[in-house]
User: Fold these one by one.
Assistant:
Number 1:
Amino acid sequence: MGKTRSINSLNIDSTVLCCNFVNTQSSWTSADRYDYFQTYDDFIEWCLKVNISSREQLQGLREFAAEQCEDAEAALNRIKEIRSILHGLISAVAKNSEEELLHFLPTFNLLLRVDAVSRQRLVYRDKKFTIDQINISGDLTAPVWLAVESLATLLAESDLARIKECPKCGWVFLDETKNGKRKWCNPKYCGTSDKMKRYNDRKKNTTE
């Protein structure tokens, strides 16, 4: 019997929110991939796992989604659409493909300008300013805009050469190693599997 997949079993291999959001498919390189967002409730469980919003806010969204099933399904489809856009842009940067980058950038900018930034507010509390997100009642997509903002920050503030895509599964990550030589999303899983595949390929070629 195969391993049961769920948000609980999903590995979190990046320290960057937008990368973890994109990495909620088991693979981007295989047609036989598993989407960890099977239901809207799965999305909420992921939000809780990565601590994207307060537990109270997420529980409120969960309860609202349970009452508005059609809205929850529409929100989940929108969330997956946004995830594909973020993946396309990060992947283009990782592959240093300017053509793909320029293809995805306008769509991403619409998400950022029209949806993500419009939900921000400047808050003054305890004698200091912070940027917070406006909580719109019944906005089932609310947490995803934090992932959109995370990608804008990542691209604007990071060394683009350190934004990488795993050659085995297509997961994306920011290489934070000292020497910048990280290759796989997770050396234990994809690294071992990739090395074993290349070893078997070499062995096969020498015996033919």
Note: The beta strands are 120-125, 128-133, 163-165, 172-174.
Number 2:
Amino acid sequence: MRDTVIRALVVLTIGGGAILAAPAGAETAVGKFTVAGQIEQTFLETGGPAVWGVPLDDARDTADGQFQRFQHGVFYTEPNINGGKAYAVNGPILAKWGELGWERGALGYPTSNVYQLSTGGFAVPLIGYFGDTPGRWSKFEHGVIYWTEGTGAHPVSGTIYDIWSKSGYESGSYGYPIGDQYPVADGRVAQQFQRGTITA
């Protein structure tokens, strides 16, 4: 069964196997496996084997798409999302997404690659200026996951995401999420951020 396949990121050293250049849309041989279709296109556009290493296996089917594991990330594609474009997920964001149930979880499929971001620092009245807090984020069908080394990886979705986005995302008054959503009274949910809690 596909769901029994462990898709956690595993860094392996795989020797041998020449990397053959091929136009997008054809199959590209990378090590012992091939990369094809939308996964191949995104793989080559985002740096190819120099960034992602070699594939750990051939592409596998999901319920309605495909995924392929590489040494340094996993690529997912779903035909009904952005024309079937493939997106890469890696590192702590990949681990958190897996914890939440992969594409069958609450967030659904990825709809962006993992992006680097930078807040540029922030000022707190009467306390002082705090330096830059670089992080990463990735967008999914039903929310986002944000990560920094200090805060860890946490999803933001639903009404809390709407409030947080209007405040300026991680560069706004709340900063990065420091925990996941949790239930509170009256059927509402809350989530803690670096500089406050949002309840919705």
Note: The radius of gyration is 19 Å.
Number 3:
Amino acid sequence: MTLGEKITDLRKKRGLSQEELAITLGVSRQAVSKWELGDAMPDTDKVIALADYFDVTTDWLLRDIQPSSPGSETNSIPSVTEMLRGAPMLLNLTIGGNVFGAALMIYDLWQQTYYQIPTILGLFVQIGMCALFLGLCSSIQTQDVSTGRQWRKKYWRCNIYALALMPSFWVSNIALDMLAQRFPVSPLLLLPMTAMVYFLVCLRMHFATRETQ
């Protein structure tokens, strides 16, 4: 494809007449017509103006190579800025999902359902929410380590309260069962022990994810 053919093709794609393009470039309509027919070559400054106006490279205009399409960049990895656009909404989604998962497990604990289906569903929901947002953090961290770590900390800081509830209960229950094999232990200790473990885990995560000013 010659330079004239390229100019004609770009002009028609924009829906411009030769006169409209000439006015934009500050030349006569006859000059544009001669460029397109191949009877004359535009000056260097006009080639640059054409490239800027049609958003192509001067290298493509002057050499017979195909322009790369806008979406065919070799680096298809989204930028950190693009990934961060949906991060706040995704964070809110994971908070809601983890709270819902914890609610299912608490319901199962209260109702003592068969096969513990609510607990299993709650665990899958929480695992899915963790994988979803932490996967985003890992993608961000490949390009910007500091930003990735910051959002990872923000995730744990917001979600630990829902995520730590049932594990704290399970750990306390196992610990009481082990103590009961050697000492007389009241089942009434399960609730305060769970609360203590839960408080310690949340406090530990609170200080671990504290943002330095």
Note: The CA atoms of residues 66 and 184 lie 82 Å apart.
